[in-house]
Amino acid sequence: MIVAEILAAWNAHLTLSRRRSPHTVRAYAATAARLLHTLPEGQTWATLARLDAPILRTFLAERRADGLGNVSAARELSALKSFIAFAREQAGDHHGRSEASRPRLRGPRVKKGLPRPVTPDEAVNLAETVADDASLPWIAARDRAVLLLLYGAGMRIAEALALPALVLPLGETVVITGKGGRQRVIPLLPIVRAGVDEYARLCPWPLAKDQPLFRGAKGGPLAQGMVQRAVARARTYLGLPATATPHALRHSFATHLLSAGADLRSLQELLGHASLSSTQIYTKVDAATLLDVYRNAHPRA
After folding, report:
1. Tens digits of residue pLDDT in 79-99
2. Confidence at residue 115, expressed as pLDDT on a 0 to 100 scale
3. DSSP letters spanning 187-229
C-alpha cells in the first residue's frame, strides 16, 4: 500500500467511524503521517500491526529531540496507540485492542504538585482519548458523553449515570436529583447535547424511558468503575497526574466558571451544594491557579 491510501483510511476511520473532532483528526493524522515517513516504503496493515514498543519509542525519542513538550508527547503517544490498534483491526486481528496486545509505552512524567483542576484543553483531550481507547464505536460515544456531562454540565458521576432514558431527547436544560434528594436544573451546552444524542443513536440496547440512559457492554446500568478505569488509562497516555479523575472534571467545570466571572450563589445552584461553604473552596482553587499563572508568566516572579 502507499502512504496516501493508509492515511486516507485512517482519516475516514477517525471522521466517520469514531466521529472525532476536526482537531483530533488533524492531530492523529499528522502523527500517523510522521510515523509512516520514518518507515520503509511498502508498508501494509499487517506490517504496521506488528510495530512494537522499541520502534515507537525510537520515533517518540526523535520527536522529543525536536523539542516536543510533555503534553504534546503524551498526545502523540495516544495517537500512535490508536493508529496501531486500527492497523491490527485492518489486518484481521480482532484482539488488537486488548490490553495484552498493545505496545507497552508509558507517557512522559508530569511534575507533581498540588492537586489542581484540569485545563480546558486537558478536559477535551481526556474525553477524546477515552473515546479513542474504547473497544466499540458506541462505547466510545458513551464514555465521551458521560465525561462531557461532568465537565460541560458539572454533574457528579453518580448523577450522570443515574440519568434515565426519559431525558431523551435532551433540551437546553435537564432536571436531575442530586445528594439528599435535592433537585436542580442544569443548562446543557450544544456540544454536550450532541454527545449524548450521538451515544443514543449508536447504543445497541433499547433505551426504554424507565431504564438507565447509560448502559454497560452487556446492557445493564453502566458502573462508575468502568468510567474511572477508562479515565485512568487515558490520563496515563496523556501524562496527566493521578488527580485527573472523573470527579476532577466537575471541579474543573466549577473553577473555569468562577474564573469567567460566575458568582458563588449561581455556582452553588449549578453544583447542587447544600451549603455555600462547600462552593467557596473554588475561590481558593481559582486563587491558586492565578498565582501559578503569575509565577510562570511575570518577568519578575
Report:
1. 888 899 899 989 886 544 444
2. 40
3. E--HHHHHHHHHHHHH-SS---TTSBSSB-TTSSBPPHHHHHH
Catalytic positions, please?
156, 179, 247, 250, 273, 282
Q: Is 1-109 a CATH 1.10.150 domain?
A: yes
Q: What are the cell numbers at 155? A: 454533574
Q: SS3 letters for 46-70? A: HHHHCCCHHHHHHHHHHHHHCCCCH
Helix 120-132, helix 137-153: angle, nearest 10: 160
How confident is the model over 220-276, as pLDDT tens digits? 999 989 999 999 988 888 888 788 888 888 877 777 676 666 666 666 666 666 565
> Cis ω on the peptide bond leading into residue 169 (within 30° of 0)?
yes
Q: Could you tell me the CA-to-CA distances from 30 to 6, 62, 80, 143, 238 in Å, in that order?
A: 12, 15, 10, 25, 17
List, for residues 142-196, the tens digit of each pLDDT value. 999 999 988 888 888 888 999 999 999 888 888 888 777 777 888 888 888 999 9
**Torsion sign over Cα 228, 232, 234, 238:** positive
Q: Which residues pair with 212 in a beta bridge?
A: 164
For 115-144, the pLDDT digits (tens) are 456 777 888 888 888 988 888 999 999 999
CB burial readout 82-112, b (16+ within 10 A) else e: bbbbbbbbbbebeebbeeeeebebebbebee
Domain ranges of the chain: 1-109, 110-301
Among the four given CATH numbers 1.10.443.10, 1.20.810.10, 1.10.150.120, 3.30.70.260, the one describing domain 110-301 = 1.10.443.10
User: What is the grid cell recorded at 84?
Assistant: 496501531
DSSP string covering 102-132, please?
S---PPPP----S--PPPHHHHHHHHHHHHH
